[in-house]
Specification:
single chain, 113 residues, mainly alpha, 4 helices, flat
Length: 113
C-alpha cells in the first residue's frame, strides 16, 4: 500500500513540474514577446534587414544576439537568487524602476520648468 501512495505522489509531482515548466515558459515568452514589440531592437533589426537585403543573415545575427543577452540575464538572475531573497530583490528592483522613472521624467520636463 505504501508503494501505491509513493506512485501517486510521484505522478502528482511530475504533473506539478510539467505545469510549472509550461507556466513559466508561457509567461516568459509572452512577457518578452510583448516587451520587444516596437522596441529599438526590433526597429534596428528592421532597418538592418531593409538596408542589407539579406533578411536571413539579419535574423540569424539578431537571434544569436538576443539569445546571448538572455543568457547573461538568466545567469545573473540565478546568481542573484542565491544571494538575495525574492522579497528583497522585488523591493530593490521596484526602487530602481522608480528612480529611473523619476530621472526620465525630470529629463523630459526640465525644458519646461
Amino acid at each position: 500500500m505504501n508503494t501505491n501512495l509513493e506512485k501517486n505522489l510521484e505522478k502528482n509531482l511530475e504533473k506539478n513540474i510539467e505545469k510549472s515548466f509550461l507556466s513559466i515558459f508561457i509567461t516568459t515568452f509572452t512577457t518578452i514577446f510583448i516587451a520587444e514589440l516596437g522596441d529599438k531592437t526590433q526597429i534596428a533589426t528592421l532597418m538592418l534587414s531593409a538596408e542589407s537585403g539579406k533578411p536571413i543573415n539579419v535574423f540569424l545575427g539578431s537571434s544569436i544576439a538576443l539569445i546571448s543577452s538572455s543568457i547573461v540575464g538568466v545567469l545573473i538572475g540565478k546568481w542573484l537568487s542565491k544571494k538575495i531573497s525574492p522579497s528583497k530583490f522585488a523591493l530593490f528592483t521596484s526602487a530602481l524602476m522608480i528612480i529611473i522613472s523619476v530621472f526620465l521624467a525630470y529629463d523630459t520636463f526640465r525644458n519646461y520648468l
